[in-house]
Amino acid sequence: MTRIDHVAGERKTSGVSLQGVNKWFGAVQVLGDIDLDIQSGEFVVFVGPSGCGKSTLLRLIAGLEEVTEGEIRIGGRDVTDADPSDRGIAMVFQTYALYPHMSVAQNMGFGLKVAGRSKQEVTGKVAAAADVLRLTDYLDRRPGQLSGGQRQRVAIGRAIVRDPDVFLFDEPLSNLDAELRVEMRIEISRLHQSLGNTMIYVTHDQTEAMTLADKIVVLRSGRIEQVGSPAELYDDPDNLFVAGFIGSPKMNFLPAEVRGGAIRVAGHPVPDPGLRSRPAEGTKLLLGIRPEHLRLAKPGEPALTVTAQFAEFLGGTTYLYGAVAEGVDCVMEVDRSVDTRQGAVLNVTAMADDIRCFGENGLRLR
Amino acid sequence: MSSATMDPAVRAPVRARGRGRIRYHRLLFHVTAVLVALLFLAPIFWVVAASFRTPAESGQPPLPPWPTQGFSIDSYLRLEKFGQSILHYSGNSLFVAVGTAALTIVVSTLAGYGFSRFRFPLKGLVFLLILATIMVPFQSILTPLFLLLAKLGLQNTLIGLVLIYTTLQLPFSVFMMRNAFDAVPREIEEAARIDGVKGVRMLVQVMGPLVLPGVVTVGLFAFLNAWNEFLAALVLLTDQSKFTLPVLMTAVRSGRFGSIDWGAVQAGVTVMMIPCLILFLILQRSYIRGLTAGAVK
Fold first, then answer.
1. In the prediction, which pLDDT does A337 show?
2. A335 and A215, same structural domain?
3. CA spacing 20 to 30 A to B283: which of A132, A250, A288, B246?
């Protein structure tokens, strides 16, 4: 038995299901008609811009906010009105929310103590969790004597010790510096692999979402925009918002028009993306092309002309920022051999399969 | 950047002048602090020194304040002989002060928690009303208070006095405790809810230690105010055996043939100061933290 198996014990993980969940704060609707199924053992990330309702959704699952309408089930059990402590969840907060007057060991064992578990059991579980999180040397310290990363590990330890069915993370890495964030991200990912619990993670950082998630839920203005694996969202976004939100640097959006039987950007024809229903002549579209999908055109190939404005050299790659036409900017990933001086003109194209078309209403045309 | 500012030879005098100014400021600061401290310590020294004068000297003009005709504890002995012993009256005062502090802490902690964390109708108005009572001078409601206590059969009892003092102490205390609870991040309470903590346990085990500085401040204020309060005790207590120390002082004051026994008064005041000083010195760290809680994040 590994160390982590010892912490987790005999586990049956549980899925989470939300049906028709609505949340109103007074007259303001913050979440509307949320239907979501999370499979047992999945790592799901709620992502979206601030104010989109992702934290509220997590708090509804935790039971820290009351559902105005709808139903929440954890492991098949209706927990809509259950107390947070009876839902089989544990939560890690952005601000750590450790008890400042308790030692690390007391912080981690408090939940079990409240549940009336024996002192021996509490000590054992705390020691095992501390071992996993490399906190053994800090068990007697107070949270005030720890660094940000250590505090966050204590918060995670407190969650592990509770042996929950579902872990909830509310932007747990936002208060850490960039280097530590990457380190903790890997640690959380490793924890998920070894514990196998269902984990729900809220973040506004799409990189965190992409790297951690089995499934990403993109939210905007209290509604789910799209649910899917990171690759699905990246390759096959349902709308402009998801296409723009996932991926860094952002997807390029080029205004286009159907003219003379071809889709044209600033008058130049682009490869036919093979839409099932061909848009009528004169239809205005937005073409979405990721920076890494734009490439230099071979001589004689139909191409867009991009005027270079500036370049970011990142070592492995270079991002060239330029303009396709007046007011239409674009970013492309280029080889370091490409001339990226300001004013340089490049002929650029993309594979037809890499071009996504969006209608004027922002929805994807397939 | 000009080359002049880079030249160490030019920069050095500027730095030296800067350091000189800082030293000058520090000196001024310390001199002022010592003078202010002396100003506050002078009356205390005066009272303690004068309490050791001989009976003959105690009635004489107060300059110099210290004993000139020999050291004597006669004033303390006279104080002890008055009525029942000084210990008895100290006991009365202690009962009233501790009772007031305890009751104030309990009520204001519960009220502060409620005002900080629960939503209920007219919350803002009720809180404002509680605070507004600070503006009513309590001397003006002494008569109704007296009548109320009489109706309850609590006039001339120490418990009645505790109730009155607690009432007077509550507006400030509730305000203090609400601020103390407001300063505790909501997430800590939520984490405790997830840990399964509820009700009184939340207040005692999770929130309690976090608002302790506030509790100490409220308790200390209640204790000191109840210990030193004079007017209400004078009006409400008629039985000499129930007197608290401030009332005792007025009774001790009258010496032979209408003269004032300054020696006994000074001795009494010295005795009265001791518990306050001890309590304050023990609790001063928590007390200062309590007063500034929530002032800055």
1. 84
2. no
3. B246
